[in-house]
Amino acid sequence: MSASKSTAESTAGSAAPVLALRGISKRFGAVQALTDVDLEIHAGEVVALVGDNGAGKSTLVKTIAGVGPADDGVIEWEGKPVTVDRPHAAQELGIATVYQDLALCDNLDVVGNLFLGREIARAGVLDEVEMERRSRELLSTLSIRIPSVRIPIASLSGGQRQTVAIARSLLGEPKIVILDEPTAALGVEQTAQVLDLVERLRERGLGVILISHNMADVKAVADRVAVLRLGRNNGVFDVRTTSQEEIISAITGATDNAVTRRKARSEGQARTEGQK
Description:
Blueprint: H1 3-14, E1 19-28, E2 31-41, E3 46-50, H2 57-65, E4 72-77, E5 80-82, H3 87-93, E6 95-98, H4 110-114, E7 121-122, E8 125-126, H5 128-141, H6 158-169, E9 176-180, H7 188-203, E10 207-211, H8 215-221, E11 224-229, E12 232-238, H9 244-252, H10 258-275
Parallel strand pairs: 3-10, 3-11, 6-9, 9-10
Antiparallel strand pairs: 1-2, 1-4, 4-5, 7-8, 11-12
Helix pairs in contact: 6-7
């Protein structure tokens, strides 16, 4: 483990969370997608959000990003309750989301994609020189290697496209970045590039929510792992002290950990009180 990761972990453990979810629930008709979900993200830490298909990961991400507001529960930003009922509200707070489809335009170059919707203009004319300068500066700061900022996105590899999408999310100077399956369908070398970038985001003091099915990726860069199972919390684990097998057991429901025992106990008490 790198010294920077250890420093980030100690800082995250002592400071108040930048983002906190308290008792988040979400229903779609008769389907209860999320039930009383809690999650905390500190500055300078990577939290992996894992779970089987249908566990509620995408629903929770959309709740945080303002795409699908929660029905119940509270979202806190830097200790204060906030309303995140639309994507713009999340962006204004400092939450950036990079979805799996990346939403890049193949026919535009790197500069055009980085500043899509954020174009810099002077006297009504696009300032291509300034946007190119800022693009080079941003990519250099993140140690992203691109042949040219004027190369069409369609010419880049999958890993390079992913890093461009992540870099674009940083233009708004967010404090929390959500990465939805950033290494899916990437090769070994491309995956390594993306994971290196995730670590650099942490070094910059950002909180990162990493959604992934790849346990090797999770163990490589995450500080904590939050497991969702059937729309509920099923444990938050410290990567340093938890084996991959324990995390997989929580995902599949093979273990009864402190969280599930507490839930079972509270439900049992509720049934007992209801019978009185």
